[in-house]
């Protein structure tokens, strides 16, 4: 019996050390060298104070700010500890009603805007934490933000263009804007 358990225990200890200690330390070390900003949470600071993360969506509700995608996380919006989607299919009546309500709310807050509401402003992402919106969603909100800040719409549109993220190598992904970066640029430049 001793000859059976001893190798098993030794193998268990060696694998625990390799997979449970050495591998995580190595991967973390490589991450700190290769991707230091991401490993530290991609935190964004303004005037020495952390104001958010460029990888996790934040809730902006004031009319003078751009708003991100709705969050499906619980128990509060943009809760990184509770990342999840709503798991509602496109034909689910609850999702249809939620989208209708979000469209109505956007229309009520910007009644002069008659363009189509971009889908990413009324549907949550799979993680519920998406920090970016499409350029269409940013342009849709430009009039409201400009009016709330008493600025020419052209200046707000120029900021959208300045902060836009282009597709990787011009092919992968779509053009988009990070909501936190856009709002911080709006505060800093206007």
**Binned strand content:** 5-15%
Helix content: 40-55%
Q: Return residue spans where pLDDT drops below 50 for at least 5 consecutive residues.
A: none
Strands ordered across the widest β-sheet? 3-5-4
- Apparent shape: elongated
String of helices and strands: HHEEHEHHEEH
Structural class: mainly alpha
Oligomer state equals single chain
Q: Biggest sheet, open or closed, and with what strands and sense?
A: 3 strands, antiparallel
Q: What does this molecule look like?
A:
The chain has 190 residues and is mainly alpha-helical. The protein has helices at 2-34, 36-39, 93-109, 135-149, 153-163, 179-189, and strands at residues 43-46, 49-53, 132-134, 164-165, 176-178. The strands form 2 sheets. The protein has a 3-stranded antiparallel sheet. Strand 1 (43-46) and strand 2 (49-53) form a beta hairpin.
Could you name the key traits of this structure?
5 strands, about 190 residues, 6 helices, 2 domains, mainly alpha, two-stranded antiparallel ribbon, about 10% strand, three-stranded antiparallel beta sheet
Summarize the topology.
Layout: H1 2-34, H2 36-39, E1 43-46, E2 49-53, H3 93-109, E3 132-134, H4 135-149, H5 153-163, E4 164-165, E5 176-178, H6 179-189
Antiparallel strand pairs: 1-2, 3-5, 4-5
Task: Offer a quick outline of the entry.
The protein has 190 residues and is mainly alpha-helical. 48% of the residues lie in helices and 9% in strands. Strand 1 and strand 2 form a beta hairpin.
């Amino acid at each position: 019996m001793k000859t059976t358990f001893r190798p098993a225990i030794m193998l268990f200890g060696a694998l625990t050390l390799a997979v449970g200690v050495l591998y995580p330390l190595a991967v973390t070390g490589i991450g700190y060298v290769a991707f230091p900003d991401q490993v530290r949470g991609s935190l964004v600071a303004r005037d020495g104070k952390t104001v958010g993360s460029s990888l996790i969506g934040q809730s902006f509700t004031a009319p003078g700010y751009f708003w991100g995608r709705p969050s499906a996380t619980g128990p509060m919006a943009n809760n990184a500890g509770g990342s999840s989607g709503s798991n509602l299919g496109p034909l689910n009546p609850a999702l249809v009603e939620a989208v209708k309500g979000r469209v109505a709310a956007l229309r009520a807050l910007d009644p002069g805007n008659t363009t189509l509401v971009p889908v990413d402003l009324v549907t949550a992402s799979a993680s519920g934490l998406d920090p970016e919106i499409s350029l269409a969603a940013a342009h849709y909100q430009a009039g409201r933000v400009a009016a709330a800040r008493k600025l020419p719409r052209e200046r707000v549109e120029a900021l959208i263009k300045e902060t836009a993220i282009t597709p990787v190598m011009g092919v992968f992904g779509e053009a988009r804007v990070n909501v936190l970066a856009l709002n911080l640029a709006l505060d800093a430049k206007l």
